[in-house]
Write a structure and sequence with these properties.
By secondary structure, the chain is of the alpha/beta class. It contains ten helices and eight strands. It has helices at residues 25-33, 54-67, 88-109, 114-119, 139-158, 171-181, 192-197, 202-213, 233-242, 261-276; strands at residues 10-14, 37-41, 70-76, 124-128, 162-166, 186-191, 214-219, 248-251. It has an eight-stranded parallel β-barrel, surrounded by six helices. Helix 1 (25-33) links the parallel strand 1 and strand 2 (37-41). Helix 3 runs parallel beside helix 5 (139-158) and helix 8 (202-213) packs parallel to helix 9. Bound molecules: the ligand O=C1C[C@@H](O)[C@H](O)[C@@H](O)C1=O.
């Protein structure tokens, strides 16, 4: 018989990558660029359209309704400055973010428009481990992160949320953390550009980690537009198809030195839509 019908991938961008964090602007930008979702930032209390408040959540829901651009997931980039391995403030940030997600999911469940509800119910949050928050090559910090995640994961599990670790670790270390925490709520947030830059075999890692361990993917090229660098995105597409990856592909960075982030994202969106969403 016929092979099973394949759904096109959903493509979005993160709000920080286009320098429009915590605002409605990113949704209008995505709509103009034909992107379907925004990975929305979660930051310190009171900064921008902070999802901690009902008023801001209502505003963003209304923006999603008018633009038809979904909240693909959330991301806490500020963890790069407030490291999860070494600060209690970081644990509080993740906890606040989960509270906001729980409220968004509850509020969405009351909407009669089920398609809209799905677009305003983020389940995945990216936890960033870069710069001074990097834990690569630092077993003590890895152990500290495991301890913290063991406290956070039960809440995520109870509410169907996923904590996605975006790190500079290779597959072996990522597996060690995930297995040590021992919760299905802790997964890898895979970034093609970061892992390629580290020299990892990104194709082997994606295939081996699979959907069981990868919750979401950043499609990123280092200092080049998507498709202009060394990463073979057609190969990535085949791998994601083969593992029946159901999630979002989020465009991040991928801007050559003299190109503005917005211009680069427009070009990257055209490339990603052509390849992954023909
Ligand atoms: O996805 C990411 C999150 C950012 O916080 C980080 O700085 C960046 O390198 C990245 O890849």
């Amino acid at each position: 018989g016929d092979p099973p019908a394949t759904k096109p991938f959903r493509i979005g961008t993160c709000d920080w990558s286009i320098k429009m964090p915590l605002s409605a602007d990113s949704f209008y930008f995505a709509k103009e660029t034909r992107l379907m979702g925004i990975q929305y930032s979660f930051g310190k209390p009171g900064v921008g359209l902070d999802l901690r408040t009902r008023e801001n959540r209502d505003t963003i829901r209304e923006v999603v309704r008018t633009t038809d651009v979904a909240i693909a997931s959330l991301g806490i980039g500020i963890l790069n400055q407030i490291p999860l391995a070494t600060t209690e403030e970081a644990e509080q940030l993740v906890s606040d973010c989960m509270d906001a997600m729980i409220k968004m999911n509850e509020e969405a469940s009351q909407l009669t428009d089920r398609e809209l509800a799905a677009k305003v119910s983020p389940k995945i949050v990216l936890l960033a481990f870069f710069g001074k928050a990097d834990i690569n090559g630092n077993p003590e910090r890895m152990e500290a992160v495991i301890k913290t995640l063991k406290r956070l994961a039960p809440v995520a599990e109870e509410h169907g949320l996923i904590l996605g670790l975006e790190t500079l670790l290779d597959e072996t270390d990522l597996r060690y953390i995930i297995e040590s925490v021992g919760s299905p709520a802790v997964k890898v947030y895979y970034d093609t550009g970061n892992s390629a830059r580290m020299g990892y075999d990104i194709y082997a890692e994606i295939q081996s980690l699979g959907c069981e361990s990868i919750c979401e993917v950043h499609i990123k090229e280092n200092d080049e537009l998507l498709g202009d660098g060394t990463i073979d995105f057609s190969r990535i597409k085949s791998l994601l198809r083969a593992m029946q990856y159901p999630g979002w592909l989020i465009i991040e960075g991928s801007a050559p030195k003299k190109t503005s982030r917005t211009e680069a994202t427009q070009k990257n969106a055209a490339y990603a839509l052509g390849l992954f969403h023909p």
